[in-house]
Amino acid sequence: MNTIKLDLTHGSVFFDSEIIAVNEKGILAKSIAKLCSTPTQTDEGRTQYRSSRKAIFCGQSCDVVIEIGEGRLYAVAFLFDLIEFFESSILESKVLKACEKSLNVKFMSDHPSAAFLDPFNWGQVVFSYDPKQGDLSLDIIFEHSPNQSS
User: How does 46-66 read in b/e, with b if 16+ C-beta sit within 10 Å?
Assistant: First the structure.
């Protein structure tokens, strides 16, 4: 399994201790691309890379999807394996609580199926939940690319 770490201060995501970044041509760094399956194109014209193996983030098993667009790191999504159903709110989630503990943060929610952290200068962090399937995901969305690599 791959290990994922998140630095909220700098908006950095580390995949097996390698920072997720794009090079000067806007292409995902080779050290990370080699850990992913063949990239695909989205309807929005961005390139998505999916981890070729399961990853562990905040102690939870997940798939990782890295999205590159406009020559920069656009988003990193964590698609958690654990299926959960809640009485009233996503804030009841075991996965969300594990992330809060691991990251030392407190998610807020103004909707039963979404939770978020206050925006950062580099972007935003949003949990979402599909109540029909019990699927949880955490999206790290970058307003500008936090890292460039060669």
Answer: ebbbebeeebebbebebbbbb
Say if residues 67 and 137 touch (Cβ distance below 8 Å). Answer: no
* pLDDT score at 53: 94
DSSP letter for 144, please. S
Alpha-carbon span 21 to 68, nearest angstrom: 9
Write down the mean pLDDT value for the chain: 91
From CA 133, how far away is CA 144, in angstroms rounded?
Answer: 32
Among 50, 47, 46, 26, CA closest to 36 = 50
Q: What is the pLDDT of residue 150?
A: 39
Sign of CA dihedral 120, 61, 85, 92: negative
Q: What is the pTM of this model?
A: 0.90
